[in-house]
Amino acid sequence: MGLTELQKIELDILAEFARAAEREKLAWFVMLGTLLGAVRQKGFIPWDDDVDIALPRADYERLRLSHGWFQEPYFLQTPHNDPAAAPRFLRLRRTDTTVFSGFPNGLTRGGHMGAYIDILPLDDVKNGKEAREMCFVAAQMQRQMLASAALDEYAKPDMPECRERFIFGAGGVAGNCRFFADRYERFLSRYSDMPYYAMLPLCEFKGSRIYEKEWFAKSVPMEFEGLRVPAPIGWKETLIVSYPDGLYEPDAKDRKPKHTEEEDGCLVDTRRPYLEHVRCYTDMLRGIEGKRVLVFGAGDSLRIFLERYGKGLDVVAFDNSEAKWGTEAYGVPVHSPYDLPKLFGEDARLIIASVWHEEISLQLEEMGLGDYYIFIDGMNYTREG
Q1: pLDDT in tens, 311-333
Q2: What range defines the domain where residue 327 resides?
Q3: Which residues, 6 or more positions from 320, have their beta carbon under 8 angstroms from its beta carbon?
Q4: Which of 245, 272, 299 corresponds to the end of one domain?
């Protein structure tokens, strides 16, 4: 069975990481599904589209603080250099591809969203109880980091209620994201010379997986899709701990990749950079001056758009509800979508302002109108001039 296009990209990223790790003499190990795939398949588990590797904290820190180790199109993403999009650990991404997951989230504009591999720290812990407690605290700290990044992007009095509730409920503080990120890394690495390792940023484990450090005293080479990758010398014990419910293959109905269209806000495109996909969400107001603004949606999202950004704009609205055709909504005329093609041109800006933006996007593309933007209540837009 051949690799998917996403698996091929992830394999390329893994090979690039392996080259840098060899050059810089980093200790690292394949973990979780990647380790299981190396043991069973000598490569990807067929339905898996994720790569997981881990480094002991000292090597992880060298990598996290590195400069110039990776060149375009590779980008080492950290909670420090990309707080809006980074998870609680590192990712090595390819900027000429796209992997959205949960975007747009209404909190931040996002950051680097190319295809990636996950890079986790192996941190010293005393025991399982300590690991569970640290994992819980780490999750709360990461929420505060994300909330602070969101606040930095949107320090405005008209902040949407849902965004405000998350930001201040999670303890967001403007201008302090880097401080919280430093504190987070210090907290995770507080111990040394302990008998166990844990991957504390993985909140879904809740600190329940701890590994004896002797299992990582050395590495053994394994094949992974033609690459030679290091596995823990105690790979059997590591897999047993990683999968406490057993190493059985899941039922056929449960063999699903991580990145699927069924996941809300998920998009995979291995041929186009993420910035090309993001622009319709983030660049709504760029170059809007002097254009006629065609807004698809005559509901409350239109009202919010007009209140925040409509001053001085020539706005016409469109809606799928026949009852609204020929009327006005919030002071602007409402037309049928069938009128759009004759009004759309170089001097117009087409914006979707509706909670049904995904469905309307498909409708516009079927009409041959692919050059549109999407207004998301919660994103920060800046109107030039």
Answers
A1: 999 999 999 999 999 999 999 99
A2: 283-374
A3: 337, 360, 363
A4: 272
